[in-house]
């Protein structure tokens, strides 16, 4: 009886933990549907309206919630509720991911039927050229970094490791869309990922790197530059 009751409680807890992320995923699907409606109607929404919907379709919140669930902490439900309310840290990750994706993938997106991007919306709202719109949008990206930094520095209702989830999502977006659309064309990322993997292995053996948190310190102290790992690839792998 005890094991049965325990199993029932665990199932109930799991149901509560999954409920909030499932609702957020549904919201993301609705955001994708809204983009499809705009595309079919050739509608270019105001920038504010576009970003409200586009930030959701960036799926930064569902990704963050998935990470929170995977951490397995006791108060997962409370942290999921926090993220689902879209505090500044979550909004920053969503907005940054959406805008950088629009900027880097602009040309390819317009080579096929596609919803208007933040560049198109900005150009329509302010009557500026594409180049001017891109400059202003990059300024908006800088503001999202300020927002996430503020969240990291001030007291919050959740632990800093939960905020770091969305900070790391922004870092991933920054690397993935650095001068190319690494999401649409993942082959452009393979050498970068190989460099990172080899770098950690080489530094573990030759520099004494214990964990990833020591990597920035090692690089800042000029112990090694990540590109220097390439000559040691054979030594590391074999």
TrEMBL record:
GO terms (BP aspect): terpenoid biosynthetic process
InterPro entries in UniProt: Isoprenoid_synthase_dom_sf (IPR008949), Terpene_synthase-like (IPR050148), Terpene_synthase_metal-bd (IPR005630)
GO molecular function: magnesium ion binding; terpene synthase activity
Domain Terpene synthase metal-binding: 22-147
Coiled coil (residue ranges): none
Record keywords: Lyase, Magnesium, Metal-binding
Protein name according to UniProt: (E)-beta-caryophyllene synthase
Organism: Heracleum sosnowskyi
């Amino acid at each position: 009886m005890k094991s049965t009751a325990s199993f029932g409680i665990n199932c109930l807890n799991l149901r509560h933990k999954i409920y909030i992320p499932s609702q957020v995923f549904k919201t993301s699907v609705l955001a994708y549907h809204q983009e499809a409606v705009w595309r079919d109607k050739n509608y270019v929404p105001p920038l504010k309206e576009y970003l409200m919907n586009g930030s959701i379709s960036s799926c930064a919140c569902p990704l963050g919630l998935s990470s929170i669930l995977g951490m397995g902490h006791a108060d997962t439900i409370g942290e999921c509720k926090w993220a689902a309310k879209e505090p500044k840290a979550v909004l920053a990750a969503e907005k940054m991911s959406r805008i950088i994706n629009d900027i880097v993938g602009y040309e390819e997106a317009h080579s096929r039927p596609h919803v208007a991007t933040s560049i198109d919306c900005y150009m329509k709202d302010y009557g500026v050229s594409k180049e001017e719109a891109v400059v202003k949008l990059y300024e908006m990206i800088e503001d999202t970094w300020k927002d996430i930094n503020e969240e990291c520095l001030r007291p919050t209702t959740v632990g800093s490791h939960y905020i770091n989830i969305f900070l790391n999502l922004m870092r991933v977006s920054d690397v993935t869309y650095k001068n190319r659309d690494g999401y649409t064309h993942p082959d452009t990322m393979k050498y970068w990922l190989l460099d990172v993997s080899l770098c950690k292995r080489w530094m573990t053996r030759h520099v004494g790197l214990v964990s990833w948190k020591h990597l920035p310190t090692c690089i800042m102290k000029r112990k090694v530059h990540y590109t220097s790992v390439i000559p040691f690839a054979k030594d590391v792998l074999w």
